[in-house]
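[Meeting: bench + compute handoff]

Bench side (C.D.) handed over the final construct sequence. Compute side (W.E.) agreed to return the predicted structure before the next meeting so the bench team could plan truncations. Sequence as handed over:
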Amino acid sequence: MQVEQLEQKKKHVKKKRNSFKDVVDFCVPIVIAVVIAMLLKMFVFANAVVPTGSMLNTIQLGDRVIASKLTYRFDDPQRYDIAIFYYPDDESMIYVKRIVGLPGETLWVEDGKVFVQTTDGQTLQLDDSFVTVEEPTGDYGPYEIPEDCYFMMGDNRNDSKDSRFWENKYVARDKIIGKVLFRYYPSINKIE
């Protein structure tokens, strides 16, 4: 009789051990996946929802975008990059705009056309082929962009709250979160 009881206890203990092992086997991959996702979000990727039409037609109202946080760790932000950054007038807000002015440049807008005097003294009219909603208008500037700062504008120039209108006109490099790579909702598209 005691042998049978011992056998039953062994089976019960083994069954409990198997149940615990099954739970651990199920939970460990989930925990690992969550930790990896958190690390990627903290150090590699950022995401944002674009709540306005300021970047039409490149990015649509309500689009969700992914940005690389690593890009600007190894390279300087470039003109025409679309970036996610902390809004200079309220750093609790995140904005998505195009970089049009670089550190040390002077930028102005004449009749809706954007011009820069580069650090080597050249005067350039910037490409506006991505500005497709309507012909931009207005005169703004000149703006002398401080070192380590950038001038941002939306692609929908006539309907964009951007550097032209902010109290703090420039975005410091350390306030740029990342370079937008693609939109992932409502459709997946690479951002050019």
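W.E. noted at the follow-up: The chain is about 25% helix and 30% strand. C.D. will use this when planning the next construct.
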